[in-house]
Write a structure and sequence with these properties.
This is Prolyl oligopeptidase family serine peptidase. The protein is an alpha+beta fold. Helices cover 19% and strands 40% of the residues. The strands form 8 sheets. An 8-stranded mixed β-sheet has the order 29-30-32-31-33-34-35-36, with helices on both faces. A hairpin with a 3-residue loop joins strand 1 and strand 2.
Length: 590
């Protein structure tokens, strides 16, 4: 097959990388964005027609810590020395003011590790510094202009995420590896014993915390935590996977919730008191991330394979505003739909003309899910241009489809994934596509599944695995060495006994390298991957070479698990694209 002439899509990867790195700060006839420049300043970008403010203000970011205070729409730079701090607050319109505050003496020195915005006992805004001294003692130091400071030594481990002494509340998040965080509610004024819940912190406002809870054996759900009485109340919301949430900034108790259903994100407004929930009229599909929640409203960024990117704003009257981002809509003709292949849920992208080949795309995780977003930096678009169908597989083990779907794969990965792959091959057959014209594409854990799929189905064309999790036993050992909670997590899901055979462990270099002689396999891995080990990929590639199998290992010098610079984005995109087209036998021409 030859790739037809089409609009080059490679630039989309760079545009998307640059745009998603921008800060969404506010709304003024359009999104107010911030981007860090080479000189170390934050460049504020205002839309055309914005009123009464410089179009290109620059805010210095030279403090020991810099914080954007959404409640005041101002950047706060903190400079700390042995005896006190100097604070510079700069608004989005360029206005600036400074103040200083003394610090209590410290015998062992101290290091500033974090800063949050909060409210003091009188209801005035304040800053709370997290400092650690030379012997490892942590303290929270509350400071404010012209006000005496306050020191609180936390009884709980973790990071301060909320401070409001109007309600005698300090919330500390204790990360627990793969599990939901443990949130500790401490009382800096009364010093009563901490109380805890297990959930993910989403927002805090007016004496309430907004939490997302994912209990074992159940789907995600919302909680409102009364920080005065320390009583959590479950919030009835829409069906689907709760991804994120914020309190509305309109003075009510209502909540904006991002819910994933059928592979796309939707917006709902929920009232915890009336228990009513209604969707917002947001047209189209895509992945939505909440990026701002300030006094004027809530800002979001949405991206979709076919519809490109957009900025979304929910104002105080609960009206939605939307403007196109820099990633344009897809210029070709294609259709996206959510489908079930038996028990297997998928997102299928189909070109207008009958497809000539198919790619089964496998997300990482495993406990994540395939959404309609700009996966693989726009590569799906080039595949659609070439007449290639894309199947975004939410394989057994994914989240978003209930606990039974997630748990069915545990310690049965071969059987469960065999069913998923077979169902995709059957769907492709209905389009006239043979297994020899189907490639598997995966990243991280999905990369390991791409290799496993070729082991299970020797009639597939081959696989492209990016930063794959090749050796589950060694990976679990390394994760548990850093955080012991991973030992139980991996033990529930995988056979990781050292006494097991490679086939029993499933995700093992020797087992994953038993692909068929006719299958082309490419493994792409960064030399500085902080999540998976490129050395494990090399073990599998060396084993394949010993068997004279057509494997290619590409090591990207200096790259991590995901690209972190424009050059790395372009390099990863080029490597994955060329490898995938090679597996499918598509001629890219000159």
């Amino acid at each position: 097959m030859r790739l037809p002439d089409a609009v080059p899509q490679r630039d989309v990867a760079q545009v998307f990388f640059t745009e998603r790195g921008r800060f969404f700060l506010s709304w003024d006839t359009g999104p107010v964005l911030g981007s860090v420049q080479e000189d170390g300043t934050l460049h504020i970008e205002r839309p055309v027609g914005a009123e009464g403010a410089p179009a290109h203000a620059r805010i210095p970011l030279d403090g020991d810590a810099v914080l954007f205070v959404e409640a005041r729409e101002a950047f706060v730079a903190v400079h700390m020395n042995d005896t006190g701090v100097a604070v510079v607050e700069t608004g989005l319109r360029g206005d600036s003011e400074s103040w200083t505050a003394p610090l209590p003496p410290s015998e062992h020195g101290r290091t500033l590790t974090d800063v949050v915005h909060g409210w003091d006992q009188d209801g005035d805004p304040c800053l709370v510094l997290t400092v650690e001294d030379g012997v490892g003692t942590v303290a929270f130091l509350q400071i404010g202009p012209g006000k005496p400071g306050r020191t609180h030594r936390p009884a709980s481990p973790g990071q301060l995420v909320h401070w409001d002494l109007r309600h005698d509340a300090a919330v500390i998040r204790e990360d627990r590896g793969p599990w939901d965080s443990r949130l500790h509610l401490e009382r800096p004024l009364s010093l009563s014993a901490p109380e805890s819940v297990v959930a993910r912190w989403a927002d805090g406002r007016e004496g309430r915390g907004l939490l997302i809870e994912t209990p074992s054996g159940a789907g995600s759900r919302l909680l409102v935590w009364d920080l005065t009485s320390s009583s959590p109340i479950r919030v009835a919301g829409p069906a689907g996977h709760v991804d994120d949430a914020r309190f509305l900034r309109d003075g009510s108790e209502r909540v904006l919730t991002v819910v994933t259903a059928d592979g796309s994100d939707t917006l709902h407004v929920t009232d915890p008191q009336s228990k009513e929930s209604s969707p917002l009229p947001l047209h189209g599909t895509g992945r939505i991330r909440i990026r701002a929640a300030g006094p004027q409203g809530i800002g979001m960024y949405r991206v979709s394979t076919l519809q490109g990117s957009s900025w979304i704003w929910l104002d105080l009257d609960v009206n939605l505003h939307q403007t196109q981002g820099e990633v344009p809509p897809y210029g070709g003709e294609a259709a996206l739909s959510h489908a079930w292949y038996g028990r297997t849920p998928v997102l299928q992208y189909l070109p207008k003309r009958p497809p000539v080949a198919a790619v089964v795309s496998l997300h990482g995780g495993p406990e994540s899910l395939e959404r309609d977003e700009l996966r693989w930096d726009g590569l799906y678009r080039e595949l659609l241009d070439a007449g290639v169908a894309v199947i975004g597989l939410n394989y057994c083990g994914s989240t978003g489809y209930g606990p039974d779907h997630t748990r069915r794969a545990w310690k049965s990965w071969t059987t469960a994934f065999q069913e998923d792959v077979d169902s995709c091959i059957a769907a492709a057959a209905a389009w006239g596509i043979a297994p020899a014209d189907i490639a598997l594409l995966g990243g991280s854990f999905g990369g390991a599944l791409a290799l496993l799929g070729c082991v299970l189905r020797e009639d597939l064309a081959g696989a492209v695995a990016s930063a794959p999790l090749i050796d589950i036993r060694r990976h679990a050992e390394q994760a548990a060495a850093a955080d012991s909670s991973y030992r139980e997590w991996f033990g529930e899901r995988f056979d990781i006994a050292a006494s097991g055979t490679p086939a029993q462990r499933v995700f093992d270099p020797k087992h994953l390298s038993t692909t068929a002689p006719g299958q082309r396999v490419f493994v792409v891995h960064g030399s500085e991957d902080e999540v998976t080990q490129w050395q494990h990929s090399k073990l599998a590639a060396d084993e394949a070479a010993r068997q004279e199998l057509p494997w290619t290992l590409v090591i990207e010098a200096g790259a991590g698990h995901v690209p972190n610079t424009l050059d790395e984005v372009e390099n990863r995109y080029r490597n994955i694209r060329s490898a995938l087209l090679d597996v499918l036998g598509i001629d890219t021409g000159a």
